[in-house]
Amino acid sequence: MNSLVILAAGDGKRAKQDIPKQFVIIDKNSGKRVINLHLPIIKNKNFDFHEIVVVVPNSWFVTIKKELKKICPIAKVIIGGSNRSKSAAIGIKACSKKCENVLIHDGARPFASANLYKLCIEKLKKNDAVIPITDSIDSSVYFQNSFEDSNPTYLKREYLKLIQTPQAFKYKLISQAYANLEIEKTDDLQILLTYNDKSKVCFINGESANFKITTKKDVELVMSLIKNHDKEVESI
Fold it and tell me: What global pTM score does this model have?
């Protein structure tokens, strides 16, 4: 059994919106929100998700539960925690006892393609975790103390990779990892490897379109991309 956890419990302050970025309305006529962009692909018959757990803030629980009930009946809306790690742990715990594989995805990454979901599920058959990554295209420097350092360390860009979601895991392993979590971390793979560094991890190519909405400009970009996204979903 495959489960999907969508983390949408953040406050999205960096996007400087009146409401969290994942709940911004991008189509006033339909009332479609950013969070809704995940659902057409996820509901597609080509996928084998038996349940979808959507983790939201307490203040949005009633609204999102009501809206998603109409759009995606198999979605289970629950209230998250005070940070990402706690919300992920709550989402994982809410999965069915029959769950064997779980994908954890950021609610603020609405443009993950159908192929990315499929590849995560396929590669998980022979691995404990499947993680999409992309190349670092810019030169990178490391400041040990502050930006005022006059001699930062240049990092080799070919060795740097950027981690995306969805991240796929064998449910039993990631569930145990979160149950033993002692310090907050920002990445699910990091939590798994802290618990069991012998886990078999497969890295796959991520997608440039699968960016995370962080700033106000990102929200504006989503609105400009939505028409192309709808066409892609309809063609699946």
Answer: 0.89
